[in-house]
Design brief:
It contains 10 helices and 10 strands. The protein is α/β, with parallel strands linked by helices.
Length: 246
Amino acid sequence: MSHFSTQAKLYAEFRPDYPQELFEFIASSVREQELAWDCATGSGQAALGLAKRFDRVIATDISAEQIANAKLHKGVEYRVAPAERSGLPNSSVDAVTITQALHWLDMPRFYDEVRRVAKPGAVFVATVYSDPVLGDAAADRILHNYNKMIVGPYWPPERKIVDEAYAHIEFPFEELATPELKMEREWSLSELAGYLRSWSATNRYVKQNGIDPVIQFEAEMSRVWGDASEKRPLHWPFTIRAGRVN
């Protein structure tokens, strides 16, 4: 099941892109850069980064709505497909990536599919970013309250794996050292609000209560934010788990 189909347009517009150093690391970790598979691609944020360093990228997602809103690139072929049945040939892929989505999957079945499609010596890379942090302490308290108290009860159980930054997930590949990278942005209040509306927890809150909780969040945040068009710095703690598929 996709947790993000109904807000696919918001996901495409407001989800942050990934550091370019991530894709440099992935490309430098394999002998050939012929084909990368970006699984659970969402609207293609990672696929676009891979396309700059691999000859071809096949980007799959179980959600047709996400694929319909993906950002087009001549080097990326988008397909609707579940993670456990990619449709890719055996031993065809140099790198498999999954960003901000591994926690939603049946991991053992997905790992079997990774082994099937991977070339000898291919690399598997899973990334996850945790809760956003605003540079201003007062504003960050309001954001934290929204995340944990307002929509916190509406996160599915898999969200706990995100909070743990993938520290305890099953990882059956030969672990590789990874770079420490930052995910940072400067956003206006409306951009931050758009990002919150892309959350599956926000969507569940709206469905169950019939109101948009981000409206109250914006009203409260505006008192400490000031000019809503002013851009403020925020960052996400960012974790990379990478392994060699043998």
